[in-house]
Specification:
The complex is a heterodimer. In chain A, about 0% of the residues lie in helices and about 55% in strands. Chain A is mainly β. Helices cover about 0% and strands about 55% of the residues of chain B. Chain B is built from no helices and eleven strands. In chain B, a hairpin with a 5-residue loop joins strand 4 and strand 5.
């Protein structure tokens, strides 16, 4: 089955700097890669996603890149703000089994003011 | 749009009792819902896939007789933890895939279960 690895597990950045989180996946049939932000005590919130037919997607300060050949995708947050502090999860799915997601281990991001 | 609710948001119960958690998609229909369990500082662990009108599919190692799942309509799935014990204490989260969408999965706010 699919395996998703996420790095780093923790990331501390200064406010205004950029943050980058990287994920690798094992199943070449995976075609949908969402990113979720989870704040303490809350459920994950979908912040951006990318499909296998594109290499990059951007939404304001957030961007995701996908390299299908290398089987890795990354989340980029620019101009970080304290409210960006949270745990971020990457995930992948082939669309099978009702679109069952395989999650990475998560990255705890701390933005220092 | 794409709002998923869970009820209750937290529950404390005595060991041996059963607890029901509801997951609703408020503004869309979902033929598939998922139930996850999350321990502190860990990733989400998929427990089961809930399909409207059919039996749930459980992940390996998840006891289907302990975690009963019912998906009675296109907007409601329930998880019942039967004969709960302290080791069942956890954060339970559901998600729903919007009918007609391409894979997009939206999560509920989670339910904190504490078994005394």
């Amino acid at each position: 089955g699919e395996n998703v690895e996420q790095h780093p597990s923790t990331l501390s950045v200064q406010e205004g700097d950029s943050a980058v989180i990287k994920c690798t996946y094992s199943d070449s049939a995976s075609n949908y890669f969402p990113w979720y932000k989870q704040e303490l005590g809350k459920g994950p919130q979908l912040i951006i996603d990318i499909r296998s037919n594109v290499g990059e997607k951007k939404d304001q300060r957030i961007a995701v890149t996908l390299n299908k050949t290398a089987k890795h995708f990354s989340l980029h947050i620019t101009e970080t703000q304290p409210e960006d502090s949270a745990v971020y999860f990457c995930a992948a799915t082939t669309g099978a089994a009702g679109n069952k997601l395989t999650f990475g281990g998560g990255t705890r991001v701390l933005v220092k003011p | 749009g794409a709002v998923v609710s869970q009820h209750p948001s937290w529950v404390i119960c005595k060991s041996g009792t059963s607890v029901k958690i509801e997951c609703r998609s408020l503004d869309f229909q979902a033929t598939t819902m998922f139930w996850y369990r999350q321990f502190p500082k860990q990733s989400l662990m998929l427990m089961a896939t809930s399909n409207e009108g059919s039996k749930a599919t459980y992940e390996q190692g998840v006891e289907k007789d302990k975690f009963l799942i019912n998906h009675a309509s296109l907007t409601l799935s329930t998880l019942t933890v039967t004969s709960a014990h302290p080791e069942d204490s956890s954060f339970y989260i559901c998600s729903a895939v919007r009918v007609g969408s391409l894979n997009e999965q939206f999560f509920g706010p989670g339910t904190r279960l504490t078994v005394l």
